[in-house]
Every structure is written in structure tokens, then in C-alpha cells.
Amino acid sequence: MDEATWAALAATLTVLGLVWTWVSYRRRGIAGGMRALGFTMLPVAAWLTGTLEMFTEIAGSVTDWATGLVLNPITWTGIGLAGSGIVLIVLAGYLRDRQLARGQQATSTPRTGRTLPEATSTREPGGSVVDDDLADIEALLKRRGIQ
User: Fold this and answer.
1) pLDDT (tens digit, 9 = 90+) per residue, 82-121?
2) 129-146 in b/e burial notation, b at 16+ Cβ within 10 A?
3) 51, 14 contact by CB (below 8 A)
4) I want to staple 141 with a disulfide (CB 3.0 to 4.6 A). Which of 34, 37, 47, 147 is the partner?
5) Contact 54, 60 (CB under 8 A)
């Protein structure tokens, strides 16, 4: 395509974008209109920078690839291998996380066979049962007038 065709394509996309901008402004207000105007400026910017032609070549290449994909058994074998590889990667990450969690759990519990001492509780004058570890914190809060 020549330069005039690319300019016509950019102009057409811009006019359609301006219609979209007006409708968006009327329905959604200034924020919707500004967003639509931003998208409206992109085709002209792509034409001026030469990337509009690149985008159409990429779209054409993807289309050619997709049409060749339909009945090609070699391509489907590749897709199957890619899917299997992704499944293996995800599964390995899941198994690794489980092993790390199991390792952390093993280091946090003692292996001597003894159990951890249970927390003792005391009955306060108010009648509530409080662990000894929390009694100091509760006393500090009472002194500060928080509780």
C-alpha cells in the first residue's frame, strides 16, 4: 500500500474515533470523553510514526499463522508440548511450595518427642480467663486507659 492509503486508513479510524468520543462524552461525561479522545489520537500517531503499517503486517502474519494452524498435526503436536510444559512448570511450583511449607513446619516443632508446655491461665477479678503471656499487655493497656 502506498502512503495515501495509509493516510486514508488513519483518517477513517480517526473519524470513527471522533464519533465514539462524542457518544462517550454524551453518555459518560468528561472522563469517558477524554479516554475516547485519547484512543482516537492513536491511529494518527501510528501513521505519523510508521507503526500503523507495522501493526497491519503483524496482524497479517498472525492471521496467516492461525489459518495454517487448523489442520496441521505438527503444529498441534507443538501446542500439546507447550501446554504440557506449562502444566509441568505450574505443578513443580506447587510441589516446591508444599516442600518449603513442610520444611518450615518441621523446623518450628521440636523433634525431641516432648510436647510444648501449655499456657497457664489465671482468673482475673473481673472473671475473664487470660493467658499469662497476655496479662502483662492487658495491664499496660489498663494503665494507659485503653481498655
Assistant:
1) 999 999 999 998 898 888 888 777 776 555 555 545 545 5
2) eeeeeeeeeeeeeeeeee
3) no
4) 147
5) no
| DSSP-H helix ranges across 29-72 | 30-49, 51-69
Q: Is 47 exposed, middle or buried (0-12, 13-18, 19+ CB in 10 A)?
A: buried
| Residue 7 burial by Cβ neighbours in a 10 Å radius (0-12, 13-18, 19+) | middle
Residues in the chain: 147
Contact of 40 with 21, CB cutoff 8 Å: yes
Type of residue numbered 51: T
* φ and ψ of 124, to 5 deg: -85, 165
